[in-house]
Design a protein that fits this description.
48% of the residues lie in helices and 0% in strands. It has helices at 22-32, 35-45, 47-56. The protein has one domain (17-66). It is an all-alpha fold and 66 residues long. Helix 1 (22-32) runs antiparallel to helix 2 (35-45).
Length: 66
């Protein structure tokens, strides 16, 4: 994925593994990403994966209208 490095300011961007840490990537893009980055994440993970990861996040409120 082509995401801005600034989204992952606390991580070595070269070691970022989107397949191993989907919740981390989704959370950062949901909070700080652009619409284009969100579309890219949606294409990469798909709706169901994003929904399941968001529902597991403690600090994001689940929305039933996803």
């Amino acid at each position: 994925m082509n995401l801005r490095k600034v989204l992952f300011w606390d991580t070595d961007h070269n070691k970022l593994n989107c397949d191993k840490h989907p919740a981390y990537v989704i959370e950062r893009v949901a909070r700080y990403g652009t619409l284009e980055e969100w579309k890219e994440v949606l294409d990469y993970y798909g709706e169901e994966k994003i929904k399941s990861e968001i529902l597991l996040m403690r600090d994001l409120h689940a929305v039933n209208t996803f």
